[in-house]
Design brief:
It is a single chain. The longest helix is centred in the last third of the chain and has 30 residues. This protein is 51% helix and 14% strand. It has ten helices and nine strands. By secondary structure, the chain is α+β, with helices and mostly antiparallel strands. It starts with a strand and ends in a 5-residue tail after the last helix. Strands 1, 3, 4, 5, 6, 7 and 8 form a seven-stranded antiparallel beta sheet that branches. The protein has a two-stranded antiparallel sheet with strand order 2-9. Helix 2 crosses helix 8, helix 7 runs antiparallel to helix 10 and helix 8 packs antiparallel against helix 9.
């Protein structure tokens, strides 16, 4: 079979790489631009905060996978196929073969596949295949030289953090915009209040701020992980700020006052996390074992404390809004 490739399909630049890959996949599937701020808000990624006790770079991706994927695709109104297997599972070769076949079929339909762990432990898009060479074409955020290497069928799921995760958009379904908005805000509140799933060794929601601050002040936090997490969550909260402001202007939810005040709170959250991201610029060349210096740790903790204050207030306002009947 000759090689097949989806022209112009690419990951949308985004620090939350699942979100960027999802945006790229849906852009190709719909043959239309994708509003990533709206996508981030709807799917809940704008409101997530997941931190490891040492603030290692794994925080943004160390979330229970299928639950996050199901929520994200349901909120944007798409059905999907999902393939997941740990590389140590006895069934891994079977899952890998099924995923390869599904990716080929999806590309023939003109829809890229979202795939974990090609080259680095992040998400990317598979945009083409050559069944004779048994190799996939990929779009990552690592640059053209890295993308040119592609990935062989046999390497799928065997990257630096070896497990198979493949998500394939299937078909659009109709969703009610006001229901989607209320559910997005409901997720934001539930996640913030600690009712979302989390893996051992991590904290999420508002409790993640406390763990992040404690890790900084106790000098456990590494500079590499802090820089990476700061970039991811600063951008996420900028998406949250824009999403909430758009909801206010669209007047989908009836009661505007608590939503407008929540949007103002998230502006302050975004500002403080943007300052944190400026303090810790990310570079792949940063030493992996270097701890954050004491003076920077204190300043960073102060920014996080202010962000926590404003986010907790924003969540209170969203909770008030959600307790108001939808028709008021």
């Amino acid at each position: 079979m000759p090689a097949h490739i989806i022209e112009n399909a690419a990951v949308v630049p985004c620090w939350t790489t699942f979100l960027g890959a999802m945006a790229g996949a849906l852009c190709a599937a719909d043959n239309a631009d994708c509003d990533i701020e709206d996508l981030a808000g709807r799917t809940g990624f704008a409101f997530r905060l997941n931190i490891h006790s040492d603030v290692c770079p794994s925080g943004p991706t160390a979330i229970p996978p299928h639950d996050a994927v199901r929520r994200a695709f349901d909120q944007v109104g798409w059905d999907f196929d999902y393939y997941f297997s740990a590389s140590s599972d006895n069934t891994f070769p079977l899952a890998q073969n099924r995923a390869v076949a599904a990716i080929e079929a999806s590309i023939l339909r003109g829809v890229p596949a979202i795939v974990w762990g090609v080259g680095v432990p992040e998400f990317c898009l598979v945009t083409g295949f050559d069944s004779d060479d048994r190799r996939f074409t990929v779009s990552t955020l690592m640059g053209a030289d890295s993308d040119a290497k592609g990935v062989s069928y046999g390497e799928l799921g065997l990257g630096p953090v070896p497990f198979l995760e493949v998500v394939i958009p299937l078909e659009r379904v109709e969703v009610d915009p006001s229901r989607v908005a209320r559910e997005a805000l409901g997720f934001a509140v539930s996640h913030a209040r600690g009712r979302d799933l989390r893996l051992p060794g991590y904290a999420n929601g508002l409790a993640a701020y406390a763990l992040w601050m404690e890790s900084l002040t106790s000098r456990r936090a590494g500079a590499f992980g802090v820089a990476y997490n700061a970039q991811v969550y600063a951008q996420a909260r900028s998406f949250a700020k824009e999403y909430l402001a758009d909801l206010v202007s669209e007047n989908l939810l009836g009661s505007r006052d608590p939503l407008a005040r929540a949007a103002e709170s998230y502006e302050r959250v975004a500002d403080n996390l943007a300052s944190l991201a400026e303090m810790f610029p990310f570079d792949l060349g940063l030493p992996r074992d270097e701890k954050v210096a004491a003076d920077k740790a204190a300043e960073a903790a102060a920014l996080l404390e202010r962000a926590l204050f404003w986010e907790a207030g924003g969540i209170d306002k969203l909770e008030t809004l959600l307790k108001t009947p939808a028709d008021q």
